[in-house]
């Protein structure tokens, strides 16, 4: 009986110790040399600030102490003073002057809040690119021609399109399908990458025929080009870095600057979207594919293991595809490299 009790106690101690180690591993890890206080400056991003305090910047939601009693609890502005404190043994980051007992509202516009990621080049990128799935492409208005039966039009020309359109939106962009996104593993058609070729203004509609004047062009407008509303002029930037869904795993389908190698601040497309629970702010680790080598003795071809090479943050999600910005890079990456949640089991 004593021997059995001893075994049980030993087992309990081992289980408790294992749980303690696991719990310790799940604790937020502060960056070595982190500041106790930081004054936000213009040009900062949420990713930058999170990286000043955390070893894993995507764990920002766990450290940011939101004051729900103010109008814009998630927004941070240049000039805000952030300080590190401890609540129930856990690190928390707060704004000075925003104590829960003395809440104060800020009179400001969202445009002045710091973004989650660097927005340089992304404004024009999201205006120039879009992703439509097959069903949406079929229902989007399309160009049927121009005056005098012309099939090509430029700035200053009148063109005609057919389909249902929100006539309250007077400015419409013309897009052309540029690339099919097909999942290399399943063969599923995930969507079409669309490139903007022109800007137009709606002049009139008659039943399902739309008259538009071409204002600006990058390329000639052609029959079957698609008509889409101009996107919001500002990239949605008020979102928090957070790990992608634990079981979300995919790969980089393309790099959006047309280069072969991928590095920091390159925009990429991945084969994960709303369907997989992905949204703006979600962070993935990027794993560079292992190279193929020939064994010098057996002459067999062997595949080297993949290695972690960087991180990306999603800034625009669609149904089955998302655009992400590479935030860190420890190695050169390429199309086809894997992405998976930082919370995924190794």
Automatic annotation (TrEMBL):
Keyword field contains Signal: yes
Tagged with keyword Membrane: no
LysM domain sequence ranges: 36-84
CDD domains for this protein: LysM
Coiled coil regions, renumbered to chain: none
Keywords: Signal
UniProt superkingdom: Bacteria
PROSITE patterns: LYSM
Signal peptide coordinates: 1-23
InterPro entries, A to Z: Bact_Kbp (IPR052196), LysM (IPR018392), LysM_dom_sf (IPR036779)
PANTHER family xref list: PHAGE-LIKE ELEMENT PBSX PROTEIN XKDP (PTHR34700:SF4), POTASSIUM BINDING PROTEIN KBP (PTHR34700)
Protein name: LysM peptidoglycan-binding domain-containing protein
């Amino acid at each position: 009986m004593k021997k059995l009790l001893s075994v049980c106690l030993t087992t309990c101690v081992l289980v408790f110790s294992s749980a303690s180690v696991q719990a310790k591993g799940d604790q937020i890890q502060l960056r070595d040399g982190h500041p106790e206080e930081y004054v936000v400056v213009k040009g900062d991003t949420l990713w930058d600030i999170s990286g000043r305090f955390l070893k894993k910047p995507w764990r920002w939601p766990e450290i940011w102490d939101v004051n729900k009693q103010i109008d814009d609890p998630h927004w941070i502005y240049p000039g805000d003073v952030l300080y590190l404190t401890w609540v129930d043994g856990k690190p928390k980051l707060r704004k000075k002057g925003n104590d829960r007992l003395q809440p104060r509202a800020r009179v400001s516009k969202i445009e002045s809040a710091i973004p989650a990621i660097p927005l340089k080049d992304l404004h024009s990128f999201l205006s120039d690119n879009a992703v439509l799935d097959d069903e949406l492409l079929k229902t989007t208005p399309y160009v049927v021609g121009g005056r005098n039966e012309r099939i090509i039009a430029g700035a200053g020309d009148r063109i005609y399109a057919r389909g249902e359109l929100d006539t309250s939106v007077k400015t419409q962009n013309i897009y052309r399908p540029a690339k099919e996104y097909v999942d290399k593993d399943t063969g599923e058609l995930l969507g079409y990458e669309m490139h903007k070729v022109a800007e137009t203004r709606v002049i009139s509609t008659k039943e399902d025929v739309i008259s538009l004047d071409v204002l600006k062009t990058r390329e000639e407008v052609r029959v079957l080009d698609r008509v889409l509303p101009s996107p919001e002029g500002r990239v949605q930037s008020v979102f928090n870095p957070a790990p992608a869904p634990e079981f979300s795993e995919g790969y980089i389908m393309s790099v959006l600057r047309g280069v072969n190698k991928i590095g920091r601040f390159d925009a990429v497309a991945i084969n994960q979207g709303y369907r997989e629970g992905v949204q703006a702010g979600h962070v993935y680790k990027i794993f560079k594919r292992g190279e193929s080598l020939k064994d010098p003795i057996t002459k067999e071809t062997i595949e080297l293991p993949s290695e972690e090479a960087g991180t990306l943050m999603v800034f625009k999600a669609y149904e089955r595809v998302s655009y992400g910005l590479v935030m860190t890079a420890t190695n050169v990456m390429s199309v086809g490299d894997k992405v998976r949640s930082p919370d995924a089991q190794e």
